[in-house]
Amino acid sequence: MKTALVCGAGGFIGGHLVKKLKSEGFWVRGIDLKPNEFAASAANEFIIGDLTNPVVVADVLNKPFDEVYQLAADMGGAGYIFTGENDANVMHNSALVNLNIAELSVKAGVKKLFYSSSACIYPAYNQNDPDNPNCAEHSAYPAAPDSDYGWEKLFSERMFLAYSRNYGLNVRIARFHNIFGPEGTWTGGKEKVPAALCRKIAEAEDRGQIEVWGDGKQTRSFLYIDECLEGVRRLMQSDFEGPVNIGSEEMVSVNQLAHMIAAIAGKEIHIHNIPGPEGVRGRRSDNKLIYEKLKWAPSVPLKDGLAKTYAWINAQVKVKVDQPTYI
């Protein structure tokens, strides 16, 4: 039986990845600072541990796993990443985790390692036009990410590739573009745009109003979790090292995204655009390389994933509202 270690298994993508690997017959060990708050882990073993500690990493990497998936990072949505208030923690914690995993994966004889990078590595100067962003893989340099989160991700890409060249670590690297779906953070300040808008619309009355940061004309592409995992597994089964984009080419403005969710909810919603962190003006996955190398690219329409995500978040909101308050 093949073995896999999922770092960040208590997170949104990690939790779904564990389930996919289990469905394919893997024996899976997961590790995170905390379990997923929305679903029990499907892992054979789930360890609570801090991957910034090399002793913890050595303990979980105590055998030559067939596959290691490094998803663990200090991260969140725009309200966490773009304020500048969390930059030191984001860079320090994520870099330590990646350094520990690279070094100890070599020592453990890991056969193949996946690293989840981000579209945030792309230069801000290529994403000023909301209608024509350039996020082709080769456009990453000259480097100028719009956040320290993006700089750390770019550093870690290069670090894993250096371990590949110098120590023979067999790596695969993907740049994720706004992955969303059920069983992810939807409130509390670290949620991302689709989850935040689903929550706001679920909480709003019909013909009510929601707030959206910025002018709402900033554009993004969003990828449903099932498509993300399919891309990850295809990359791991290929001979292509990457980095490669895993994202959708279907681009919408944030205001358009809100209206799509409102239509799914069957509500008429008025948008009040307010000042707030919004990141680059435009971002969309460029899928030429992934199709060239893997003969595959995501194809499920955005609205299909949003319908599933809204249904789940709406149920979470109702449970929260229906909970009795004791004084």
From TrEMBL:
Gene3D superfamilies documented for this protein: NAD(P)-binding Rossmann-like Domain, UDP-galactose 4-epimerase, domain 1
Domain NAD-dependent epimerase/dehydratase: 4-247
InterPro entries from the UniProt entry: Epimerase_deHydtase, NAD(P)-bd_dom_sf
Entry keyword set: NAD
Coiled-coil ranges from the UniProt annotation: none
Record protein name field: NAD-dependent epimerase/dehydratase family protein
Native organism: Deminuibacter soli
Lineage: Bacteria, Pseudomonadati, Bacteroidota, Chitinophagia, Chitinophagales
